[in-house]
Amino acid sequence: MTNPILAELTDDGAGGLSYRGSRYLLIRPETLAALQHAIEATLGAAAAECLAAGGRAGGGKATASLDGAGRQRVEALVAMGSRIGWGRFALERYADDELVVTVTSSPFAEAYGKATAPVCHLTRGVLEALASAVLAGRRRVTETECAAMGAAACRFEART
């Protein structure tokens, strides 16, 4: 299967890659996992919120670039997550007050290794930005299952 994002990825010749006018970079998941482990060693539990903040920043820009409203924006971001290598995203449930997304083959969970708590904070942050845009009011997303903990998939829930 051909990934449609690859057809729209442009190289500016000066070290920059762009997709629809937004700069992207290719980075190994192990690099991010090592960064995450280092931040956790320094900050403890606060590291999760630092990583989620990064996800919210990128997710906010991605969400703002999407056309449509509600479900259309959710489906577009879920499709994009899969296409840019963040795992296989699936929309489990969407309503005015609820958003549930699962991700199989999360590169974050795979690179992190075994964990006793959820580790996909970047993905959680992206989905928090999305939930805040499509659900009533700002929504906190919880990763209720994580592949790094042995689950079959990572599961993210936003509810009122």
Q: How is this structure best summarized?
A:
The chain is α+β, with helices and mostly antiparallel strands.
Can you characterise this structure?
This protein is an alpha+beta fold and 160 residues long. It is built from six helices and seven strands; from the N terminus they run H-E-E-E-H-H-H-E-E-H-H-E-E. The strands form two sheets. Strands 4-5-7-6 form a four-stranded antiparallel beta sheet. A three-stranded antiparallel beta sheet has the order 1-2-3. Helix 2 packs across helix 3 (46-64) and helix 3 (46-64) packs across helix 6. The longest helix has 19 residues, at 46-64. The chain is globular. It starts with a helix and ends with a strand. The relative contact order is 0.16. The model has no long low-confidence stretch (mean pLDDT 93).
Which terms summarize this structure?
7 strands; globular
Itemize the secondary structure elements and their pairings.
Blueprint: H1 4-8, E1 9-11, E2 17-19, E3 22-24, H2 29-43, H3 46-64, H4 71-83, E4 88-95, E5 98-104, H5 107-112, H6 121-134, E6 141-145, E7 154-159
Antiparallel strand pairs: 1-2, 2-3, 4-5, 5-7, 6-7
Please estimate the helix content: 40-55%
Low-confidence runs of at least 5 consecutive residues = none
Mean pLDDT: 93
Provide a count of the helices. Answer: 6
- Derived from helix and strand composition plus strand pairing, the structural class reads alpha+beta
Please give the order of strands in the largest beta sheet: 4-5-7-6
